[in-house]
Records
---
Amino acid sequence: MSAIDRAELARRHEQRLKLLVPAAVEELKGLSLFSGLPEKARDKILEKIRQYVHWVEFGPGDIVLRQGDYSDSAFFIVSGTVEVQANLKSQERFAVPRLRSTATGAAPRELRPRSSIAGMVGKGQKTFILADVAIEDTPDSRVLMQEGEVFGEVAALSRYAVGATVKSVGTTRLLQLRLPGLRMLMKTSKEFQKFVDDRYRRRTLSSHLRNVDLFSKVDARFLKEMQERAELLSFEPGQIIVDEGTEADAFYLVRGGYVRVSVRAGVTDLVVTYLRKGEYVGETALLMNLDWPFTLQAMEYVELVKISKEDFRRLLAVAPDVEDKLWNDGVAQLKARGSVMRDPISSEYLQMAAETGLIHGESVLLIDLATCTRCDDCVRACAETHGGTPRFVREGYKYRNWLIPSACYQCTDPVCMTNCPTGAITREVGTLEVTINEETCIGCSNCAKSCPWDNIVMIETGEVRTDGKAVEVASKCDLCISRPEGPACVQMCPQGATIRINFKDIDRVSTTLR
Amino acid sequence: MSSGIALAPKVPRNLKATAIVSVALVAACAVSSLFFPWHANRGPGLVFGFLAAFLFAFEMLYPWRRRLASRFLNTARNWLQAHVYLGVITLVSVFIHAGFRWPTGALGWSLMMLSVWTTLTGLLGVWLQKWIPSALADGLTVEVLYERIPAILDKLRTEAETLVENSSDRLKRFYDREARQSMGSVSGSWGYLFNVAAGRERALEKFRRMSQFVDPSEQDRVEDLMTIYTEKLELDAQYSLQSILRRWQVLHVPAAGLLIGLLVVHIAVWIVY
């Protein structure tokens, strides 16, 4: 028998769900969180927001947010106290510097595949883990947050992994604001928007900037100044950020969401690339004194840091050694632009990747149908690695000669992780694989429902619950994490038809899918 | 284990190397035959016999590679490459071992026949594995798991019959006469091996002609019926070609097993006598 009592975990989850109470407008009105809403429209706005807002109660020691998890909610402390705790030991393991009061975010980490299998799973991209909770430099790296304070908003808005574990000290009553509600509140309450922006600026921006190559060697004083002067912008899905041919007036750093970079060609737009958090754009035009050579468009909710042309020029003056890198990046961008202009077909792959959601994947499984002999060795190898149950089937979306089976993409922002009640679905900080702990999975299917690509399935364990129903657990591709040789599906394909790819790796995408 | 392996899966990677090795072996045989009279059971002839036996033994490891060694010794793809190209070198070694003469005894004759047959059927398999996937991917829009073909066909048939149920008598009669029987089961055909869309135009032409004779309000229904029928024809092609991909081994594997059995007898006879 397992040391973990799954039934007990499920019982506690059900109890927790009972404590999750929808909020009524009258109750919300009195909270300081909503004081910034315009008086006249307050009731109307609260009526809209309340569908995304719940009261929730935690007992002593209960975990509200877990470090490294992904969350889609911010929390407002109505009563009680929570303890914020960064596990410095685990961070040291990943060589993350200690948190300081002046720079309270944990240093960003790249998602990276195990070095031994890097070639098989696609290369990892710059994707970072940032803390959004202030932790002072105390010996035990803990801080208490009291009634009236908000936490979790940066991780929810920019979909970074949560930077610290938040535990309830005694009995704590919280107001949980899910992402749409949080966005609505930011849009309607200037006060709240300012509060969130200030918090981001104060706690996270410096570590975010520091991670961008451009700012990595800039002295702290300049960075501090930049932190104050940078503009924080939000865009809604489909909104044009900059238009091709207009005057380039700024440098943009993406802090959340996906930005489509395209060029005009005839009556249509050709996609050149996509930008995601941690990536930047604008240096080409600013360096060469050009108009915008691209159109930038928000593909979903996008959060940007805008640095003006003047500040950008000052940056070059104080850090001349970054100029070479910028020129190289600029040339690469123009080369990519020229490449899609010459060969518009290559842009189609990126367009398809955006439409089907493949750009979210860090390691997408593709099968070349023109080479695959339909022997199913890939599925068999997968089953053998996972105790007889394969983690994918050779069925899915077909694009030209390529099949995209229903195997987990290992998304950059794994939305499946936002709502797991027991933390069974995890991604270890700095790694690529999103894995499910079958011992602690209680079969609530939240992850399966959250996955936009239906790449998580519920499977029966063979056990039976006390109420007679079969026990189910969530199951998904974990890139054969237990297998030192890498994903079995790739290694065991006799035709070499199975590959793993990251759609940000445009060179490989266009050479492979051609 | 580089990612580059998967980027150009169709390029015959070891063809040149295999040709060079084969020519070198034949050259070695030619040179040594200048100095020694060629005997299969003596000198260089025997060495080539050993080489062929060793290679046959290696070839036989392939079916077990999934369980035995592939995980630890490189990718399945490299194993398959080795199986194919070393198989060709094995046959060359057998010819050299026999001194490019047809064996006289029944055992030698059987061994030679089986070696040639096994190699040729293996190469046929390679050709089928190159040809069929390409044909399926390029010529068909439907991609389906072999095991699910009957279930999907059932679904298509139900869809077609529901469509026809509330239609005019003329359309019903047309469906009964031209499509109902065909929709009942998968129809395999070797013709798909050479043309994946074989017979499709002729079959669909009837639907096109029929659409001229039905009420304009029913033309969409005929279009839908035609789409369903096209999918059915694609399922037939998938079934036929995937069956070939699965079954060609019947020509190869039993012969290979028999060959190994006779090879053991051949070696035993050589040791004893």
---
Amino acid sequence: MNLVVLYLLLVKATLTSFSGLASLPVVRSDFVVRRQVLTDRQLSTAVAAGRIGPGPNGIYVVSIGYIVDGIPGACAGWLAMITPAFLIIPMLRFLGARAEHPRARSVARAVLFAGAGLLASASVPLARDAITNPLSLGIFAVSFLLIASERLDSLWVMLGAALVGLIAFQF
Amino acid sequence: MARPRFTPVTNLFLRVGISVFGGGDPTIAILQREFYRRDWLSPEKFAIAFGLARLTPGTNVLAFCAATGWYMLGIGGALAAVLAVTIPASILVVWLTRAYDLTAHSRLAQSVANALVAAAVGTMLGAALLLVRTQSKRGHWLKPVAISLGSFLLAYLVKLTPLQVITAAAIVGFYWVES
């Protein structure tokens, strides 16, 4: 597949969605159903690879690009993933001059607190998948306490968790 | 609020990009905490970046990174943030795509991945608590608690989308202005 076409198809999928995996139906329609350059199994592999690794869920489009056209395809997928992100900058420029008004500050704080509620809500399904035994419950509780008490850099929390997972495997 | 230098900002996005598992929400939670610890970004700017990222097409967390990078260092900061948070993770996802059949059945990889996701969940909840606690003015806890709890219930029980929840919170914030 032509790299420009690959990029345009993937950027169309990312531009018409508002979260990482929401672009999946468009990707499936274009790549699996219409053009038949991917199978459903390959699509599932791409989604799984994106979820196993670090980074956003939307990173699966890099994997799609790689499956379709190797490393150049992965680059096209990466470019399609990051392109829409920069649309936020004109919006920030527009809002910048108006951000100091008391009512604007109140709206911003309300959005911030909503963010805390949304984070808590998003953690529930993840918790159901991740906390399945006493060890994962312990990792969850220690991570929560360390982050909430600001005692440790988050990198060390993650590295510590990986180490515990590694040690747990030995037993 | 000190203006941060380019290298430490890029380093932060780089290490968050390669060390945070579980998708965009844990990434935002950890970035929020690290910005707060370093005094790099005001709560108001964080809130604008967070809210607008939900309105931006594509992967929300990348729009959030572009916005916070732009606030701290201009257009160079936006570029550095997005590139740092995506390039190493993209290289890794290509490798994982190749190795998927191997890693999907590897108990060692699963053990480590499970531990990382459990830590990501703890991190998200810790960051949510920190967000409310640090941004609540002394004696003014009702608005933060009401909006946070209300947003949680709207998202979790009523199943509103994040965009709808943020819009509802913005309307509340517009009419409920604290002195």
---
Amino acid sequence: MEPITQLHSTTVVMPSTNIDTDQIIPARFLTVTTKLGLGKSLFADWRYTSDGSPNPDFVLNQAAAAGSHILVAGHNFGCGSSREHAPWALVDYGFRAVISTAIADIFASNALKNGLLPIVVDPATHGWLLAHPGAAVTVDLAARRLELPNGTSVSFPIEAFARHCLLNGLDELGYLQSKLDAIAGYESARSV
Amino acid sequence: MTARTMFEKVWTAHEVVPETPDTPAVLYIDLHLIHEVTSPQAFAMLAARGLPVRRPDRTLATLDHSTPTSSEQIFGNVPIRVDAAARQVQMLEKNAIDFGVELFGMRDARRGIVHVISPELGCTQPGMTIVCGDSHTSTHGAFGALAFGIGSTEVGHVFATQCLLQRKPKTFAVNVEGSLAPGVTAKDLILAIIGKIGVSGGTGYVLEYRGAAIRALSMEERMTICNMSIEAGARAGMIAPDETTIAYLRERPRAPRGAAWDEAVARWRTLASDPGAEFDASVDIDASQLEPMITYGTNPGMVVAINAAIPVRADDPVDQKALAYMGFKGGERMLGKPVDVVFIGSCTNGRLEDLHAAARILRGRTVAKGVHLLIVPGSQQVKREAEAAGLADIFKAAGADWRESGCSMCLGMNGDTVAAGQYAVSTSNRNFEGRQGVGARTLLASPYTAAASAVFGRISDPRPLL
């Protein structure tokens, strides 16, 4: 995986709360056997009309959204199904971070394993971002800070080990494999 | 010694390496359940790195999410109608052989929804850690196991190491006292709990359901409760094992036998939270105040008592968007709204007791004209038991569509879908937009309420029919 240190991008705003992973990618697109190419199905039921043409009212179909890597979403983004297809689709589309006041546990865990930063901010910062779609912001993963164009800079929490892996382009499996002796010891001690 | 919660006991017993500020815990996984939809990418990772499945003996595979429910497609010569689903099935069949994993294949008598078959076989046991690439893995917490859903990358981690990297979650006591009134079920209780704490109220927590009303529940009812923990945002929900748990597991095909059984039972009896154990959060619910519940919106927290009106929240854009999708208005009553489809099944309510509940309503009655009642057993074993008990005959006589087991219309991956704009009363777990089909409008309820609504073709209170 490519190391991530800093991200600078305009934002796309989807203010709805509780955007679940069925909206991010509906179940009928889960019949794939790879992770690739899911970006075209991202938010499919909101993004396309019933005849398959782009829905002009949907934010990702508007010119201002082009080239954005940061999604600002309403509270409790990514709730519901554990499908990792959700972060796969977001990353394949081009997103590298999601900012909200709350991000669902399984989604956040999956996102971190795919180079998609789940960033939880306070309601005031979130409110500013919702009110300023297209704002050019900087996510500094090394410093754990989000910088807004109005000069504000806020810190965000991120699990320490996931951050270490992202900053260094490491894969968490490598760390787990380095513990195989301890795992074997645990198995023999418990006779499992 | 400090009083410990049940979660704390199970967590500590599975720490291969405890967490530090810099690193998560390495948590040992006792049982890894897999299915065709979230495993292909994890097997591909193993193949790409030349890794084996470390503990195939702790891994169990089934086919459920995208599989057809028509007998012809499973047992006849009719190919699986959805091509992509057929490819996923073939891929899991191949991966199971290549990696030495036990698979309950399409025609296996033990096949079914992953969260139904593992308990019924006795694979799910108290004190275990259980994971699956499916968020409803929380179901197994009904046995006092720590069970939660994971993504496909983590499925790969468990394949390769039988462990996961995990931060320790916080604990949340859901205290339910009193007793449920007749006609009010475990499904109504968990919907009321989600309505109370909200769809993100459990984020970051493991829930422990406690109190007299929980202890009074059967194992199948407890599974319904724990199943929907994730709908409150909690990855896991747990219920302390007791005599009900032990009686359920005794003599199950994969439960321990002989001396091993006695040892296991002795261990299970130590798992309940110690008196005085402290939780990070708590909520109190009086079960005796509850009525049958039904959802009116597009997440499981948008729920009301069946006789109630839809809340008026004109200033809430989220609520307005949900009501527009549902074709409802604040202040309208739920009772009497027309229904097109009724789905009874899923890992939430697809077990034998759920089918008995549906049959209690449907016996001697018929499905209203124009309503499609789809009844899908949670497993092939549930199907056989329902047929042996005469339930299937009751369903068929009522005009219901009785199928082979699978996830089916809960998520509509296999072609069992609700048409755009139609209303479906469903015993499943999610009423998200489009969950049961593009434009489908889902109303979550108990098997009683679902069956009663099928009989009248309108949202109905089941209690007068009981």
---
Amino acid sequence: MAVELTENQQLAAINADYEQRYGFHDAENYLYKAPKGLNREIVEKISEFKSEPQWMREFRLKALDSFLARPQPTWGSPLLAEIDYDDIHYFVRASERAERSWDDVPDDVKKTFDRLGIPEAERKFLSGVGAQYESEVVYHQVREDLEQQGVIFKDMDTGLREHEDLVREYFATIIPPNDNKLAALNSSVWSGGSFVYVPPGVHVEMPLQAYFRINTESMGQFERTLIIADEGSYVHYVEGCTAPTYSSNSLHSAVVELIAKPGARIRYTTVQNWSTNVFNLVTKRAVAYEDATVEWVDCNLGSRLTMKYPSVYLLGERAHGEILSIAFAGKGQHQDAGGKIIHAAPNTTSNIFAKSISKDGGRGSYRGLLEIAKGAHGARSKVVCDALLLDEHSRSDTYPTIRIGEDDVNVGHEATVSKVGDDQLFYLMSHGIPEDEASKLIVNGFIEPITKELPMEYAVEMNRLIELQMEGSIG
Amino acid sequence: MPQVIDVCPLNELAPGEMRLVEWENVEIGVFNCGGSLYAIEDRCSHDDGPLAEGEFDQEHCTVECPRHGSVFDLKTGKPMTLPAYVPVDTFPVIIEDETIKLEVE
């Protein structure tokens, strides 16, 4: 007889570590692997492989020039200096095309996603799944009833082939290639990612999920995602990412553009759990028109360095933006995360809730921008950033910027830094709770306002990941 | 009260070319888009950096900010891509006596 386990029992029952669950790697059996380094020839090769239209090839080459001309950013983190752009494979092809049935995905790759539990999750609680392995998407499927309603959920390469006009109208309008050095890099070598279009009034009730997996050592993954929610529609997109643990560095540099038309709502959830040799430098930006809502739920656990500040431009009256961000920085990690909200229209509202936890010498930074443009009267915003330090060696920084160009607005900003104190631990331990359990309880309580916003399955996963990160943190 | 300033002789700004002029500490870029002339303030509304010397696309009549890539419509001054979201000032262009002139205020 099956016994229903409580959420806590499920959590307690899961006790694997990253190495076992995610840190494995497959033998390399690829159709094509570009040599290390980036030049015009590689960019042309990628475009040729994908049989792209001329405008996209020109877009890539122009972006390459911009990437090469721009200096490496000097702000953010000193770890950026460790990136050697000449020591990266910019394109690795594992499969001929994105399959619509798991049975058709090459065996080695399918096994990986089986181990990560993706096909099972698809059956249980998703509207559609995209699975990207190295540079390209190997599996893509969306529920038939949604397809019949006109919902498009494709990998970006297929999106460009089958919906070129739609892609061309919106692609790179939110994040132009020359926005910053990493956006230029992505624009020149982008491959994979998702293209989503939700027609007016259609509500996609269950999430669409994309899973990104890097397998090769010294690999660069540069997916590109574009989501357009037409008037009055709703979609929730979830992405997860893992990689094997190698001694040399890999680079993940995505570009994600969201467009919420009047009355639409987009929620974009990320559970980033890259191995600690991955540099995760991502540009994510959204626009919300009249009465639209965009929510970023951004959970950063893994990677060597993450620099990511999802933003929402509130361009229409009464638009709403929400950013919930958790960053967990362990040994050798720097999580430089946060968010940006730009109020560019009257009566717009926003919230930024950011929480960071640092332990074992890890560094968590909050970097954010709140801007209220002239004319955005009646705007209301609240920014709360809290940091929790678990030991003496860890570090937390806060870099908030607030620019207000209008008088009739309401803006609140709160920031706290706290340390797990001996008295808190003593209180819990005096109630018979062991020290490591007590510490986990304090951390879980700290992040609970954000995990409660995740779908149940991801909240469980998030708590489990935090537990893993916490193991061995005491004593 | 609008004021009219000289830019240059008409034959000195060929299609595809841009000319910078200064008026009371405001830099203005004057563009020849295939024979039609447009003028915008040389200041990206995103971070106040110079704009007019960015990539000029004559076919679409746009200029791209060299700093962060926002593309502006030269006819309206409106940004067509982020990160800029506020239009830049535009100025009426007049041709008088084979000379390009701007109406400024």
